[in-house]
């Protein structure tokens, strides 16, 4: 048996050991915490989203997060900018995000502008620009009327213009109704009383800040224009009531490997087809004057200028030359369906005289020399008129080239009566380019301008209505 003095020594040593161990533990913890804080501070200064992206490191199967359900309805939205086709691309990307995140999409309207364009800017600047422009515009339009020149914008619900069958089948959506894009009105509509805890804002700091990806094995962006990667699973796990994106524009905004995701995004884009009855009716009637669906060649030449549209202005003549040469090289392979007069006896001159009952393409074919009748009927869509000097070479090479305002302006009359259900603004000036694209898309072949989003979309329409080239 140990004496009382021995027990005292043991207890003293045990107490000293515990105190020493605790002190060492606290010291190590302090050092680790300090270094972690320093590391986080440095990291946060370098990349805003690093801690957010790092959430994905614990996900063993990134696809497993999709389909996670919540009892509370959750939402997402984004900020539109730039021209129509950039806005359309953003909507397509938003539909995909809404589907993959299982969130109701608060869908901004199409913003049509008369003169100015809301440019692509970082989130905070873009919101201020949109809200400021829209607030001033709404006030002006109410005072002066929607057709006054000082009323610079109109906003149209996408569902008025596009076929929404696919969208309705796959996602939930609500059209955003606050005309001036007031974020407080949006919060009020969604009953968001504590934005700090109920809203997650994914704000770009640069033009193309982040690219979304679905496979944790992806370690770098697929397009060098992007700075960061954000895993879709980390977005899907967000518990906030609203995820508010800034711009989500870009054809390569997603870096996808899962087949299900790739196929859905492809389907979204393939189904984003113009479906306005007046536009389609006008397009059909003009196409009939060219011989009907698949009886001509559609061409889009974006000529631009040396101002705002400098990128296309600098390459205008190069693009005209390239498309001209491409068509000339194909003339030997032109299908006989392009030329309705191939069996007409040339000696019967009276039969070759155009009449008022003939369609426009036949009138042209009858008016040209026999050796020219192997040339195709061409419908040319362009941002410039027929008398633009850069089109001279193209028009000189091909005898039967038709353009909207040169040949078919009378068919646009019904368009002058189409109004925006939102504010009553006439949509004629905004809808005319769609007619150009619809007609060009209905040819047997379509040739577009490189890097043009308009050409890209017309090709999509062509593949939808006519088939792959």
From TrEMBL:
<keyword id="KW-0119">Carbohydrate metabolism</keyword>
<keyword id="KW-1133">Transmembrane helix</keyword>
<keyword id="KW-0294">Fucose metabolism</keyword>
<keyword id="KW-0472">Membrane</keyword>
<protein>
    <submittedName>
        <fullName>CigA protein</fullName>
    </submittedName>
</protein>
<keyword id="KW-0812">Transmembrane</keyword>
<dbReference type="GO" id="GO:0016740">
    <property type="term" value="F:transferase activity"/>
</dbReference>
<dbReference type="GO" id="GO:0006004">
    <property type="term" value="P:fucose metabolic process"/>
</dbReference>
<dbReference type="Pfam" id="PF10250">
    <property type="entry name" value="O-FucT"/>
</dbReference>
<feature type="transmembrane region" description="Helical">
    <location>
        <begin position="12"/>
        <end position="32"/>
    </location>
</feature>
<dbReference type="InterPro" id="IPR019378">
    <property type="entry name" value="GDP-Fuc_O-FucTrfase"/>
</dbReference>
<keyword id="KW-0808">Transferase</keyword>
């Amino acid at each position: 048996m140990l004496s009382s003095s021995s027990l005292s020594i043991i207890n003293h040593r045990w107490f000293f050991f515990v105190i020493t161990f605790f002190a060492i533990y606290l010291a190590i913890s302090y050092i680790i915490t300090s270094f972690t804080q320093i590391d986080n501070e440095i990291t946060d200064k370098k990349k805003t989203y690093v801690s957010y992206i790092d959430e994905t490191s614990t996900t063993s199967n990134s696809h497993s997060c999709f389909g996670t359900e919540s009892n509370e309805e959750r939402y997402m939205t984004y900020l539109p900018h730039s021209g129509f086709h950039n806005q359309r691309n953003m909507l397509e990307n938003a539909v995909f995000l809404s589907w993959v995140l299982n969130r109701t999409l608060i869908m901004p309207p199409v913003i049509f502008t008369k003169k100015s364009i809301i440019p692509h800017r970082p989130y905070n600047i873009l919101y201020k620009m949109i809200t400021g422009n829209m607030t001033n515009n709404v006030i002006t339009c109410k005072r002066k009327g929607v057709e006054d020149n000082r009323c610079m914008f109109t906003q149209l619900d996408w569902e008025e213009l596009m076929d929404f069958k696919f969208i309705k089948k796959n996602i939930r959506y609500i059209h955003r109704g606050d005309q001036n894009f007031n974020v407080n009105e949006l919060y009020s509509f969604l009953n968001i009383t504590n934005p700090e805890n109920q809203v997650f804002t994914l704000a770009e700091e640069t033009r193309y800040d982040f690219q979304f990806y679905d496979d944790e094995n992806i370690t770098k962006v697929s397009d060098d224009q992007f700075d960061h990667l954000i895993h879709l699973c980390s977005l899907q796990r967000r518990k906030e009531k609203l995820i508010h994106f800034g711009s989500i524009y870009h054809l390569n905004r997603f870096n996808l490997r899962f087949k299900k995701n790739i196929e859905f995004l492809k389907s979204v884009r393939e189904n984003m087809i113009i479906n306005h009855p007046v536009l389609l009716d006008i397009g059909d009637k003009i196409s009939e004057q060219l011989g009907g669906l698949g009886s001509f060649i559609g061409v889009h030449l974006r000529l631009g200028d040396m101002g705002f549209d400098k990128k296309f202005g600098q390459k205008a003549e190069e693009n005209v030359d390239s498309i001209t040469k491409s068509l000339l090289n194909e003339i030997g392979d032109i299908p006989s369906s392009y030329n309705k007069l191939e069996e007409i006896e040339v000696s019967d001159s009276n039969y070759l005289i155009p009449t008022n009952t003939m369609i426009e393409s036949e009138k042209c074919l009858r008016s040209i020399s026999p050796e020219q009748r192997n040339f195709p009927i061409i419908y040319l869509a362009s941002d410039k008129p027929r008398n633009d000097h850069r089109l001279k070479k193209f028009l000189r090479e091909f005898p039967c080239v038709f353009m909207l305002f040169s040949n078919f302006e009378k068919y646009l009359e019904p368009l002058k009566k189409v109004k925006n259900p939102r504010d009553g603004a006439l949509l004629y000036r905004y809808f005319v380019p769609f007619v150009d694209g619809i007609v060009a898309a209905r040819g047997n072949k379509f040739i577009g301008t490189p890097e043009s989003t308009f050409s890209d979309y017309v090709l999509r329409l062509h593949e939808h209505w006519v088939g792959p080239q």
